[in-house]
Amino acid sequence: MQWRLFKYGSPFIVFFLAWLSFTNKGIICFLPIIWAFVCIPFLELFLQPSDKNLADAEEEIVKTDRSYDYLLYATVLLQYAALVYFLFSLQESNLTMLDYAGRISSMGLLCGIFGINVGHELGHRANRLEQLLAKLHLLTSQYLHFFIEHNKGHHKHVATPLDPASARLGENLWLFYPRTIVGSYKNAWAIAYKEAKKNGQNALSLQNEMVQFTIVQLGLLAIIYYFFGTKILLCYLLAALMGILLLEAVNYIEHYGLQRNEIGDGKFERTQPQHSWNSNHVLGRLMLFELSRHSDHHYMASRKYQVLRHFDQAPQMPTGYPGMLILAHLPPVFFWVMKKQFKKMAIGKEAIG
User: Fold this and answer.
1) Measured between alpha carbons, how far is residue 250 from residues 84, 254, 326 in Å?
2) Using one digit for the tens of pLDDT, what is the confidence trace for 141-171?
3) Cβ-based neighbours of 18, under 8 Å, separated by 6 or more
4) pTM score > 0.90 for this model?
């Protein structure tokens, strides 16, 4: 079990590579990107995915082991340390455009992997401290509204036309980006507005969580502007945007083309494992704290990352998330690959039937 826990420390490699990025120049500034989108996708072409699940007894032990939680808590401290270090590193003299691009993309990767991804994991916890840590993570990407919309919107409407974060069959990622970003933000406001009214509060008062989030995010931007100036503020915003685009690209591949059946009166069947694309490719799973075992996450959102399971009926991605993200940005190639996966799904359903 200790070896399994140790493996979940592998995402911290990205923090180390980001530190190298912020302290060096030239191609070294791109080491986190090279690791995430060159090394891992290449290795996953040769490493076999694993569909092994924990035995019931093992799961009970792992589920209650707080060490897995402490790993997530540690990422919050490291994320803010990295953000501050990133901002100071941009004050260095004689930086080239290549240096800026490398450091911004490295921070953007941290915003995606930790700021939003770990924020997502902690945001599903019932513990208030963990929810606060989730919000602190999401704040680094200026995406606090995700906390509301994902938990109360996306999980309710996933794989239906009501969900802006579920990609439609044949939908281009570049067209999906504006639809999901704008739609998710609007949905978050609608949910917060409705909750405030339900609680008898002024919908635009400080009791509205979206109002709180907006003030906090603007406050962080004001602090960065005050201490570092306009240029570095813009660099930070580019990094945050990259984190946002990484998240939404992940949303794109997780539910692309999958639909729940409508059962009448605008209601849909219960979310099942077959309504999310799953990936058992080990390196991608570890890098993202098992996010790629997404079928089980939507089937039972309260399950912690370390005990997420494989389901035979869940549609499988041909490679891990890093490789799929590359393919998603090349629509003709992505559509060609996914067409094959849908055919495999149809064959699998016929075999089961």
Assistant:
1) 26, 6, 11
2) 999 999 999 999 999 999 999 999 999 999 9
3) 32, 82, 86, 106, 107, 109, 110
4) yes
